From TrEMBL:
The gene is rplN. Belongs to the universal ribosomal protein uL14 family. This is Large ribosomal subunit protein uL14. One of its GO terms (cellular component) is cytosolic large ribosomal subunit. Gene3D superfamilies: Ribosomal protein L14. HAMAP family: Ribosomal_uL14. GO terms for molecular function: large ribosomal subunit rRNA binding; structural constituent of ribosome.
């Protein structure tokens, strides 16, 4: 679960390395985002010559969390890091052409088929 001021790595090749969450969208009073949740944040570390500049405000979708995910079949999955994928101008698209690392299966049920097709491993 990601909350405000959480620092995540970016799991794509958009040019951003680290991302700081400062707003969780679509949650009630609990204000914690889970897998496939949309967050707004800023780029705190970018690679040189990146089209995205440092401190720019971006939207992202969460693809991995350290918090365990309980599935309906009784299994529990957790990842080693918190990771997001940077979204494009409209929420249906992503800016990157590659996804780095595994992606949770729950992304598919939210309708982000592009992320699933670019990911090498789906857990």
């Amino acid at each position: 679960m990601l909350m405000d001021k959480t620092i995540c790595i970016v799991a794509d090749n958009s040019g951003v390395k680290k991302f700081r969450v400062f707003k969780v969208l679509g949650r009630g009073p609990k204000k914690a985002a889970r897998i496939a949740g949309i967050v707004i944040g800023s780029a705190i570390e970018v690679i040189p010559e990146s089209p995205i500049k440092k401190k720019s405000v971006l939207k992202g979708i969460i693809v991995r969390t350290k918090a365990p995910i309980k599935r309906k079949n009784g299994t529990t999955v957790r990842f080693d890091d918190n990771a997001v994928v940077i979204l494009g101008a409209d929420e249906g698209t992503i800016r990157a052409t590659r996804i780095i690392g595994p992606v949770a299966r729950e992304i598919r049920s939210k309708g982000y088929k592009k992320i699933i097709s670019l990911a090498k491993e789906i857990i």
